[in-house]
Amino acid sequence: MSDFLARLAAIVGPQHLLTNDIDTAPYTLDWRRRYQGVPLAVARPGSTAKVSEVVKLCRAHKVAIVPQGGNTSTCGAATPDGSGRQLVLALRRLNAIRHVDTDNNALTVEAGVTLLEAQQAAEAAGRLFPLSLASQGTCQIGGNLSTNAGGVAVLRYGTMRELTLGLEAVLPDGRVLNQLQGLRKDTTGLDLKQLFIGAEGQLGLITAATLKLYPLPSAHATAMVGVDDIETAIDWLNRLRHRFGDRLTAFEVMDASCQQVLRRHHPSLMPFSAPWLILIELSDGGDPAPLNDALVEWLSVQTMADGVVSQNETERRKLWTLREEISESQRKDGPSIKHDIAVPTSALPRLVRDCAADLDQAFPGVRIVAFGHAGDGNLHYNVSYTRPGNADLFDDEDAVNAIVYDHVYRLGGTLAAEHGVGQLKKDWLARYKDPLALELMRTIKAALDPDGLMNPGKWL
């Protein structure tokens, strides 16, 4: 193994091969602090060509690779196991903005570019890259692609699948697939980029992508409104879509427990209190005043428990800060059994009502913190209390998951909407995923990665 490490150092540079525990520590623990690994080493290549050389070397020595971007995974997808035999391949040094094509509304970036850097590159060119996540200052484009990230603007712009025109990827044998063309139409066979989007690094390593850009909105209208129940929220969603069309960019919800968590950790930012809060945002070109007036006019004839419409960019950012601080506030609040679930939006009220009733029957007094992207049916449905003292929370995890996922799949939903599967949900995926679909995915995995060296121990 010393020969392998020496050859690896020659490829990436000695300063970019980390082997001691102090240097590798930031790469071995997942964001939620649930998974702790022991890597053989951490390699930080600086180009696609170097990634290719590393992969070829690993294949020759039968060394497994765990790709890692910003290490913001909530399901252990980028964490090595405890064997000390897996190489963490950190991609942050692949951080070039390769090309901005404003005429084609396209942006080509490398996988280690953070989401915020991609947004800023687009904005500097007078364009919008619309993916928006709370972790955007840390998460990287490669990771966003590998989990098919969604975020708060999916309602209008779609997930990373819809936002990607082309990919560059290093295959498990080290060859480089270059399909970075910025085309919106191409019927020359299979759309191969879709194999790698959402695959969590198990079919190859994404090293660059060509992403869709949009006109930069000059007008926003943003409101935080309280309503009595989730049924009312979904009714509002449908009527807002009818009134404003694709100008409805975001529609987020927060239940009462979620508001309590925010109030505990951000009392000055959280003046609202309602059974459910809705964060609504419209966006468009032109003068913001007519858009804001139209939203105020629509809201003026609705029944609501509480509400405010932002009057300037500072107020708008305060409303979004509340939404973006939920995950970190919940982490400070203590452990929780997290679910990144999605059902058809029409089924959200039934899910919320029936699942809570079954959980409360199994665990009297259970506390559920629910929030998320109701506009696309994606709810972050987290259980943070099952028994007095909360000491046995994770002892109840399997029972809680079974209740939640049974309801989700009964309603035609999924257990992984935008965070991926990773280590956390792989056994549950085997239980709920269509067996033929799993068989086909494993067939593709075996064809591309016959040695099983690409991010092993995850959902495939």
UniProtKB/TrEMBL annotation:
It comes from the Bacteria. The keyword Flavoprotein applies. Pfam families: FAD-oxidase_C, FAD_binding_4. Keywords: FAD, Flavoprotein. Transmembrane segments: none annotated. Residues 35-216 form the FAD-binding PCMH-type domain. SUPFAM superfamilies: FAD-binding/transporter-associated domain-like, FAD-linked oxidases, C-terminal domain. Gene3D superfamilies: 3.30.465.10, 3.30.70.2190, 3.30.70.2740, Uridine Diphospho-n-acetylenolpyruvylglucosamine Reductase, domain 2, Vanillyl-alcohol Oxidase, Chain A, domain 4. Belongs to the FAD-binding oxidoreductase/transferase type 4 family. This is FAD-binding oxidoreductase. It comes from Chromobacterium piscinae. The lineage of its organism: Bacteria, Pseudomonadati, Pseudomonadota, Betaproteobacteria, Neisseriales.
